[in-house]
Amino acid sequence: MTTDESRSQGGHQAVSDRMVPLSRGLSTKLLVLTIIFVLIAEVLIFVPSVANFRLQWLTEKLGTAAAVSTLLVESDTDRLSPAVRKEILMSIGAKAIAVRDEGVSRLLVISDVPPQVDEHIPLEAVGPFEAMTGALDTLFFGGDRMLRAYGRMGESTKEFEIVIPDYSLRKAMLVYARNIALLSLLISLFTATLVFYAINRIMIRPVRDMTCSMLTFAEAPDDPSRIIRPEDRGDEIGVAERELAAMQTHLQKTLSEQKHLADLGLAVSKINHDMRNMLASAQLMSERLRTVNDPTVQLLAPRLVRTLDRAVAYSEGVLAYGRTQEAPPQRRRIKLYHLVEDVQNALGIDTTSGIEFVNAIDETHEIDGDAEQLFRAIANLCRNSVEAMTTAKDSLPVRRLTVSAERSGTVVRILVADTGPGLPQKARENLFAAFRGSARSGGTGLGLAIAHELVRAHGGTLELVESVGGNTVFAVVIPDEPVDIEKARDTLRRPA
Question: In angstroms, rounded to a whole number, what is the distance separating the alpha carbons of residues 11 and 8?
Answer without folding.
Answer: 5
